Automatic annotation (TrEMBL), chain B:
This is Spermidine/putrescine ABC transporter permease. It comes from the Bacteria. The chain crosses the membrane at residues 12-39, 59-87, 99-121, 127-148, 189-212, 232-252. InterPro entries: MetI-like, MetI-like_sf. Its main location: membrane. Belongs to the binding-protein-dependent transport system permease family. It is found in: Cell inner membrane; Cell membrane. It is a multi-pass membrane protein. One of its GO terms (cellular component) is plasma membrane.
Amino acid sequence: MAETIPPAADAFLHVRDLTKQYPGSPRPAVDRASFDLGKGRMLALLGSSGCGKTTLLRMIAGLVPPQGGHVMLGGRDMGHVPLHQRQMGMVFQSYALFPHMDVARNVGFGLEMKGMPASQRNAAVRRMLELTHLENLADRRISALSGGQQQRVALARALATEPALLLLDEPLANLDVKLREAMRAEIRALQKRMDVTCLFVTHDQDEALSTADEIAVMSEGVIQQIGTPQDIYERPANRFVAGFIGRANFLPALWQRPGWAEVPELGLLAIAEHERWQGTRTLMVRPHAIRVRMGGDMTDALRACTGHVVDLSYTGGRYGCQVRVGPYLMETELEAGTRLPIRGQEVQLDWPAHRTRVLDGTP
Amino acid sequence: MNPLARTLVWRGLITALYVFLLAPIIVVACVSFDTRPYLDFPPRSLSLGSYAGVVRNHVFFEAMLTSMLIGAIAATCSVVLGTMASFGLVRGRFRGRAVFAWFFLSPMLAPHIVLAVGLMMTLQPLGLLNTLSGLVLAHIGITLPYTVRIVSMGLSRIDPAWEEAARVHGASGGKVLWHVTLPVLRPNMLAAGMIAFLISFDEAVIALFIAGRHATTLPLAIYEYIQFRTDPQVAALSVIVIVVSLLPIIVIERSISLRRAVGS
């Protein structure tokens, strides 16, 4: 991706080759990050801590000056726009609510800075407080609020100015699990209702998969793949993405002939890939794509691998079942309520060729 | 020792300690109501005569006004300068920052008598000896270590995300300072001002060296008075000074708590 790609026709946020290297660091925190995002859509920047996702978000906000690349928002180059004129709203991980102001003044801060007259501002603030279910807390001090309430205030403050772009930096990280799921849905509903384009940093793949329209998976400062949640999950671009999102089995695979690969010590397996490759690559199968069968039903024997159950664990609604097949330990899933194998029992595994995926590199 | 006895001994010790600390003030307060024209304890008969004497004594009254004026100006200047210095010391990234930090603390480390001699020799050629301005300058110097410390403490507790949030949501650099940073620092600035006022109001040694007839502060007036006369007026005046000093202390306690203002 060395050459610059022009923005997609419907791109509202257009990011090209954004790069940042902190002094004294051996590699860039963000390395030539590029993506386009349509108006009203929500993109999750997903990655583990230190992958550069927050730095990328802060460069787009204007809080961190990039060393290269550019950001365009609504057709306007943000390069020379001072940060306070970028018309963005942001929810910080720590919420960063102003401790010396009450809830209503926090929410109205952006409008106050814009110079909106007080009467108009009060009406806008009241509407925002209603949307975020904070009507009763308008004159509370910030220190008197719970974590979830602070989260709502931060969201209301970010949205009050009707920003062109909403930035969320791990907004749910400090909430407990139940509240996190409720807030996730609420943020999504509010974002759709206000039709605001949104960028969302998270390390939680469930959050990204369930909330965002698109996901950008980041690792070591590089965007590894951008796509819809289905794309990312079903058709990962590389070994890293496949391993990072969800659980997966990886097998070494050598090219045999179109539609077939050879897995050492296992034999021939049907694959969806028809183009020849050199050397060893990685064959990926998701646990829930694997069918586990017990007993001597050996039709389709060519594709079936026979192994022994190593471990069986209940994970709520379903069982995780580890099966040793030759030198490989395969993760599979079984619905609760079906007939279950016992530890040590012989089982056959098979899966449809189109549920496999061949990735670059060895497992 | 049984628990009851231990509690009693402990309470007794604490009471003794407080009596020891407060005894001079209690004695002064009692003496201030005495009717006899000399200082003696305990008083024979009580009246408010000495207080009336203090209010009628125009030397004391003017000295009190002078002290308050010097204290107010010195405290205000000290807070403004101290706040600016704090921004440099806490936020600045420059060579020799530690040296500057020591420079601002140095007046606290030198004995006042040494400072007084130095100030006298410095202010004399400038024509500021025996003037209000000279005394104000001296008091700004000795109060700066305290104001810098108290404001710096508040500044270092500011979450950088507050200022970032203000900027993202439309505040220019100046507006961030005016709407977020300074309001958050207000309790610290208020406490710093009160401490500076108290130090200036209470200061005697430097005033003795560099203030003359034109700038007699209250401690100086008291000092001069008791060189020639010792009557309960001095005690009454002391009680007034104590009461006046209590007000800033209450303000400090309310804004950032005393322990944070003077301790670590």
